Amino acid sequence: MDSSKVKVVTCIAPVNIAVIKYWGKSDENLIIPINDSLSGTLSMDFMCAKTTIIASPELQENTFWLNGKEQSFNNKRLTNCLQEVKRLASKSLPHLNWKFSIKSENNFPTAAGLASSAAGYACLVSALAKLYEIEDNVSFIARMGSGSACRSMYGGWVLWCKGSSPDGRDSIAKQIAPASHWPEMRVLILVVNDERKKYSSTDAMKRSVETSELLKYRANQIVPKMTKACIEAIQKKDFEIFAEITMKESNSIHAICQDTYPPCVYLNDTSHTVANAVHAYNEFKSSNKVAYTYDAGPNAVLYLLDSSVDEFMSVINYLFPPQDTAEYYKGLPLSSNQLSQDLKMALNIPVQEPGCLKYIIHTKIGEGPKILTDPQQHLL
Amino acid sequence: MDSSKVKVVTCIAPVNIAVIKYWGKSDENLIIPINDSLSGTLSMDFMCAKTTIIASPELQENTFWLNGKEQSFNNKRLTNCLQEVKRLASKSLPHLNWKFSIKSENNFPTAAGLASSAAGYACLVSALAKLYEIEDNVSFIARMGSGSACRSMYGGWVLWCKGSSPDGRDSIAKQIAPASHWPEMRVLILVVNDERKKYSSTDAMKRSVETSELLKYRANQIVPKMTKACIEAIQKKDFEIFAEITMKESNSIHAICQDTYPPCVYLNDTSHTVANAVHAYNEFKSSNKVAYTYDAGPNAVLYLLDSSVDEFMSVINYLFPPQDTAEYYKGLPLSSNQLSQDLKMALNIPVQEPGCLKYIIHTKIGEGPKILTDPQQHLL
């Protein structure tokens, strides 16, 4: 290829973990949600998607490789995103109609149920926006790829407003506080071993909308006040309230899943044992020190302040004896303290079989998508 | 004791399994529920409580023995029941103020989470009503002992109306159809092994009322129409609709438990696997042949017609290999058929470890409490 006639963009984008959950669409094609949602963006130091796009007039056709496998372009979500990006681009761009090759990778296991599609679409849309020189908020385009991807378009704490426009143009994400606002916040991801059949969250959400009467009440009556209260708690850095809302919200969404017909049960016995441990620990400390939240899978994501990590990890290591410590701890350093006798008594939860947890990621709140300019970092 | 001065009454009373669930009280002391509920009464051939009361002027004090252990009378629920029964009794009864000795037993394990207190209080109140010659509907008195006990005061299909009187006098049970109405109905109780801490349903309900916003919506908006539809389905013997309502109701109540803060989780992985098997089987049969329902514990209670028992038991025996078949099957006879290859494929659920189920009771809908007149049947 003639390098003067090649455009190359590489981008990385983060994972986000909702504290007010997205569950249910009012428009399946455009991915417009029935309620607002709110998330923390996780540091890209340990978990991110990476996408490189090469555009050239010499390419004969568009190609898309995800984690080393070629993907079809016959994918409504992908084509919706491409169409919207091109619609926003200046018609005078010389490379607007060049074909391109997209290569995308996640640096964390896609199978672990860790919202890889959110990071992936945020990354793709960020790279396309850079390629086509678009400066606007393009979170609504990422949303068309994978709903919660719009929240991965910003760092820190991000609100996805459901909007009211039928075309979804105002169903966008905005940052409510940057990563630097609450620097003490840490996140522990406990990846749970689970051999059960996975249900797609798209199908499950659709079934919830169709069959759960409680869902309507949740979306209309409960989420609006929870969202408002959670934004305030984040702005004030009030962990006590933040934790309570986060846990109640997670419980509420899994209640809706249980109320769906047939039910979609994402939590298993291990997930519930983690939640019990969090409540027992908070009771022992006489205040909320840890908050759990669960997405469409059994993995527990724990929000906690850095001052609580060591002690709470002693709880987790006691209740869930690690099988293979070499690959078990990922991310920020974790020290392994002995659990105090008092705390052990207070927990009153039996030690679980080794192997209930696959591994643990220790991370923190981080920045939004980033364009990488060093040519060595390109994927192609 | 001088036998001319002794009154002896022996009574048996059944267990009931709700299809529209009771969850939440509007009055903790009087046990007035926040919604109507509806149940099937189970045959006393296999599960019942039995109570003998001996009253005599020669007894010095009241005593109460439950399953061979002496109980204190310092129990608000028990004293509420006694007080109400005496209030209704004729003041001219010569034995009204005699002391008495109560002995009560269940012929099924109390620890199995099989609503033993409902049968127990229904039995006690029936025996006291007989002793004091009361002919009225005394289900409201049984209710003061243990809410759902009022539904065990009748056979067949029983509605507990929450009522509207602050004193609870109209919070009573009534039969909507006798046991003979739907003679094909069978019940399978799958008793699940579970080593977790048990939560008292009284405490959990209270916490739900205090913390679950979804509960209010359920009680006020969902239960009234479900109850009406379920009564109709029973009256028409429409199993398709009956099963759907039963399963949705069970899911709804466990959704509320998950929405409670902290959550009270009664279902475990085995409970969910049973529910999955029921949905997979119904899908295979292209209609609802089996309905699950779960109370405040992991045991699955399945309603099904006699024509489905053999085939569905082949599903259960395949998914949950029995450990010790000698003590494993209780109640009505169960034949053990081979699971068809088609059905095995359709289930798509892995075979579970042996020991997930403790035992299985096969029973049917039966009659209400009964006074036993043969002196050999007395417990004392």
Automatic annotation (TrEMBL), chains A, B:
GO terms for cellular component: cytosol. Keywords: ATP-binding, Cholesterol biosynthesis, Cholesterol metabolism, Lipid biosynthesis, Lipid metabolism, Lyase, Nucleotide-binding, Steroid biosynthesis, Steroid metabolism, Sterol biosynthesis, Sterol metabolism. Gene3D superfamilies: 3.30.230.10, GHMP kinase, C-terminal domain (3.30.70.890). Pathway: Steroid biosynthesis; cholesterol biosynthesis. One of its GO terms (molecular function) is diphosphomevalonate decarboxylase activity. It catalyses: (R)-5-diphosphomevalonate + ATP = isopentenyl diphosphate + ADP + phosphate + CO2. InterPro entries: GHMP_kinase_C_sf (IPR036554), Mev_decarb (IPR005935), Mev_diP_decarb (IPR029765), MVD-like_N (IPR053859), Mvd1_C (IPR041431), Ribosomal_Su5_D2-typ_SF (IPR020568), Ribsml_uS5_D2-typ_fold_subgr (IPR014721). GO terms for biological process: cholesterol biosynthetic process; isopentenyl diphosphate biosynthetic process, mevalonate pathway. Residues 187-372 form the Mvd1 C-terminal domain. Pfam families: MDD_C, MVD-like_N. Transmembrane segments: none annotated. Residues 13-173 form the Diphosphomevalonate decarboxylase-like N-terminal domain. Its EC number is 4.1.1.33. Catalyzes the ATP dependent decarboxylation of (R)-5-diphosphomevalonate to form isopentenyl diphosphate (IPP). Functions in the mevalonate (MVA) pathway leading to isopentenyl diphosphate (IPP), a key precursor for the biosynthesis of isoprenoids and sterol synthesis. Belongs to the diphosphomevalonate decarboxylase family. NCBIfam families: mevDPdecarb. This is Diphosphomevalonate decarboxylase. The lineage of its organism: Eukaryota, Metazoa, Ecdysozoa, Arthropoda, Hexapoda.
